[in-house]
């Protein structure tokens, strides 16, 4: 009974539907230029130091951002802030 109806297309929901093959969009490994390594190290150290001092994750992020934006002040104006960031 179901075999004939399914083959006729009446129960097409029962038919297996296959997605189109995805294009390979895998992430490439991170590459950090030698010029950016000191900045990345400074940001990481600021974050870790704040956490080890007992600060919250958000306060540690603030410390890391301060180090980053001090080294790259032009990016300060174009940063994205969550609309609720001022509510913290």
Quick overview:
This protein has 88 residues and is mainly α. It is built from 3 helices and no strands. α2 packs antiparallel against α3.
Q: Mind explaining what this structure looks like?
A:
The protein is an all-alpha fold and 88 residues long. The chain has a domain at 32-76. Helices cover 42% and strands 0% of the residues. It contains three helices and no strands. α2 runs antiparallel to α3 (57-71). The protein is elongated and about 60 Å long.
How is the topology of this model organized?
Layout: H1 2-7, H2 37-52, H3 57-71
Helix pairs in contact: 2-3
Strand element count:
0
Give me the secondary-structure category: mainly alpha
User: Helices and strands, in N-to-C order?
Assistant: HHH
Query: Which percent bin holds the helix content?
Result: 40-55%
Q: Which stretches are poorly predicted, pLDDT < 50 over at least 5 residues?
A: none
Largest pleated sheet? none
Please state the CA-atom Rg, rounded to the nearest Å.
Answer: 26 Å
N-to-C terminal Cα separation, in Å?
Answer: 63 Å
Q: What's the number of helices? A: 3
Mean pLDDT: 77
Characteristics:
mainly alpha; 3 helices
């Amino acid at each position: 009974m179901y075999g004939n109806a399914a083959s006729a297309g009446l129960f097409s929901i029962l038919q297996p539907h296959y997605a189109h093959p995805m294009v390979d969009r895998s992430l490439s490994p991170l590459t950090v230029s030698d010029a950016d390594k000191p900045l990345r190290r400074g940001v990481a150290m600021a974050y870790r130091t704040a956490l080890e001092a007992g600060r919250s994750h958000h306060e540690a992020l603030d410390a890391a951002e301060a180090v980053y934006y001090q080294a790259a002040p032009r990016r300060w104006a174009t940063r994205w802030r969550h609309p609720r960031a001022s509510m913290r």
